[in-house]
Amino acid sequence: MKPCRKRQGFFIMSQLILIAGVSRAGKSSLAKDLCSKLEDSVHLDQDEFVKPIEEIPIIQDRTDWETPESIDWKKWESAIDRALQSYSYVIAEGIFSLGDLELIQKASITILLSLEKEEYLRRRQKETRWGDEPEWFLEHVWESHLKHHNPFKIEPDIEISTYTPANLQQVLFQLESN
């Protein structure tokens, strides 16, 4: 059952939209585009719900953000539950957004953004936030994605290969159908 809330005498059904995909697939872009089109919506970025850095595993000399153990799952789940009580649309995105069965069951729509490995590498190599990333680490990110992005092997409601703003209409249509 999806949470309901009362606003000005009307019950409004809140909808949870889960967006998952590999690094640089367009999760944040899709979430921002949805927020711009959906009234009374909020965007929750899973990157904002990581554990303190000293609690995150290390791989070689780097923090391993690419493991589900990097997420503060209780904080993530609580934020989503609070948002579902306050907004009509809760758009929750991150590389592990399909990693919590309870949230998947609450979701109105699950979306998986995919990229071919070559496109992922091209986009990730353009990324400057993390400095120069060694090839072994880029490979680790890809392998971690394959291992952890959909641990329950759900069939997403929508799967988009290489998100562009033109795909937004497909998502909006699916929401209207719910």
Please give the structural blueprint.
Elements: E1 4-7, E2 10-13, E3 15-21, H1 27-37, E4 41-45, E5 58-59, E6 62-63, H2 73-86, E7 89-93, H3 101-106, E8 109-114, H4 117-126, H5 135-148, E9 158-161, H6 168-177
Parallel strand pairs: 3-7, 3-8, 4-7, 8-9
Antiparallel strand pairs: 1-2, 5-6
Task: Provide key terms for this protein.
disordered N terminus; two-stranded antiparallel ribbon; alpha/beta; globular; five-stranded parallel beta sheet; 178 residues; Rossmann fold; 9 strands
How do you describe this structure in short?
The chain is of the alpha/beta class and 178 residues long. It contains six helices and nine strands; from the N terminus they run βββαβββαβαβααβα.
Task: Outline the structure in words.
The protein has 178 residues and is of the alpha/beta class. It has one domain (4-177): Rossmann fold. 37% of the residues lie in helices and 22% in strands. It has 6 helices and 9 strands. A 5-stranded parallel sheet has the order 4-7-3-8-9, sandwiched between helices. A hairpin with a 2-residue loop joins strand 5 (58-59) and strand 6 (62-63). The chain is globular and about 50 Å long.
Strand content: 15-25%
Question: In the CATH scheme, what's the topology name?
Answer: Rossmann fold
Tally of discrete structural domains: 1
Total helix count?
6
Please state the structural category. alpha/beta
CA radius of gyration: 17 Å
Q: How many beta-strand segments? A: 9
Strand order across the largest sheet: 4-7-3-8-9
Helix content: 25-40%
pLDDT averaged over residues: 88
Order of helices and strands: EEEHEEEHEHEHHEH
CATH class: Alpha Beta
